[in-house]
């Protein structure tokens, strides 16, 4: 995962963002209150053939509320789809329960606090991999009814609908609005007037997923000039303006190219120049130029 894994964890450490992920994408309603979240244990105990080992989770928080008692909430970020993810998540949840048992002085059932893990798929394709333990196991019709299953919650983050993004209440709303627009070719600079509560975390997240280091460069540049709360917003505005200027330059270049093509086609139709001569004057391939020529009404066969 590299850089993406780092920016994922950074933004998810913010309680309002963490709660927003669970409330919006899993529960579909407001259950988790950010103010009642506290850091959980990300290194859990897991049994292996070599004994008990530690494994690191991406992010984990403890939620304590009078109506829910205590709940351990975990997030696993994936930029690559994993066939054995149900087994991994089962191990993380088991590790959470094992941690409670190991640290317990005495038992009085019901004792264990529940553990809920959500998998965020950040790959460019939908999950399409097992979401339950049974999907990972070889099938035996006679024994199958006796095999216990373990299901996981997977969210395809690059395929969120406008409605889902609109329900976000944290910086995720601005982040995924921008990322979705960029992915679908709908980048419109004037519509991004949001102000992030966690600007540095949000901008680094956007930069990593757009593979655009310019945003970080602009952010660092503006931050070095003065230290104010609005610094990161200024960086974002500057980056937006840069993107708009790049778009305008590309549009002008395309316009010039289209104008030159139209002139060459006109000269061919008037029989002022040959097609061979025109092809030496255009940057288009022969196939593309001929398509433009025939679309303009040229009927002579070559």
Key phrases:
five-stranded mixed sheet, alpha/beta, 46% helix
Task: Give the SSE map.
Layout lengths: L2 H10 L2 H13 L9 E3 L3 E6 L2 E6 L2 E7 L3 E10 L6 H19 L10 E8 L31 E4 L5 H6 L4 H12 L15 H12 L2 H13 L5 H39 L5 H5 L6 H10 L7
Question: What features would you describe in this structure?
Answer:
By secondary structure, this protein is an alpha/beta fold. The chain has a domain at 3-159. Helix content is 46%, strand content 15%. The chain has 10 helices and 7 strands. The strands form 2 sheets. It has a 5-stranded mixed beta sheet with strand order 1-4-5-6-7, sandwiched between helices. A two-stranded antiparallel sheet has the order 2-3. Helix 1 (3-12) packs antiparallel against helix 6 (199-210). The radius of gyration is 27 Å and the shape is elongated. It starts with a helix and ends in a 7-residue tail after the last helix. The mean pLDDT is 81.
Low-confidence runs (pLDDT<50, min 5 residues)? none
What class would the helix/strand composition place it in?
A: alpha/beta
What characterizes the major β-sheet? 5 strands, mixed
SS field, number of helical segments: 10
Count of DSSP strands: 7
Shape: elongated
Mean pLDDT: 81
- First CA to last CA: what distance? 53 Å
Q: Strand-and-helix sequence, N→C? A: HHEEEEEHEEHHHHHHH
- The portion of residues forming beta strands comes to 5-15%
Radius of gyration, in Å, reads 27 Å
């Amino acid at each position: 995962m590299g850089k993406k894994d780092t920016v994922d964890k950074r933004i998810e450490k913010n309680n309002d963002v963490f709660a927003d992920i669970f409330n919006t994408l899993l529960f579909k309603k407001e259950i988790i209150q950010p103010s009642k979240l506290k850091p959980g244990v990300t290194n859990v105990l897991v049994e292996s053939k070599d004994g008990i080992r530690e494994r690191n989770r991406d992010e984990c928080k403890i939620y304590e509320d009078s109506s829910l008692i205590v709940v351990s909430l975990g997030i696993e970020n994936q930029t690559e789809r994993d066939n054995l993810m149900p087994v991994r998540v089962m191990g993380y949840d088991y590790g959470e329960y094992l941690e409670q048992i190991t640290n317990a002085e005495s038992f009085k059932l019901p004792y264990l606090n529940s553990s809920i893990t959500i998998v965020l798929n950040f790959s460019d394709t939908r999950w399409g991999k097992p979401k339950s333990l049974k999907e990972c196991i070889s099938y035996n019709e006679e024994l199958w009814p006796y095999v216990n299953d373990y299901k996981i919650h997977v969210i395809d983050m690059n395929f969120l609908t406008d409605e889902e993004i609109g329900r976000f209440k944290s910086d995720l709303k601005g982040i995924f609005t921008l990322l979705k627009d960029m992915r679908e070719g709908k980048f419109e600079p004037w519509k991004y007037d949001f102000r992030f509560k966690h600007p540095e975390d949000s901008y680094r997240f956007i930069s990593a997923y757009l593979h655009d280091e310019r945003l970080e460069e602009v952010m660092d540049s503006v931050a070095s000039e003065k230290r104010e709360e609005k610094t990161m917003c200024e960086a974002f505005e500057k980056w937006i303006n840069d993107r708009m200027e790049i778009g305008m330059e590309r549009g002008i270049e395309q316009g010039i190219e289209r104008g030159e093509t139209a002139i060459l086609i006109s000269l061919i139709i008037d029989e002022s120049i040959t097609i061979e001569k025109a092809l030496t004057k255009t940057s288009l391939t022969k196939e593309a130029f001929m398509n433009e020529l025939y679309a303009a009404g040229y009927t002579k066969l070559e």
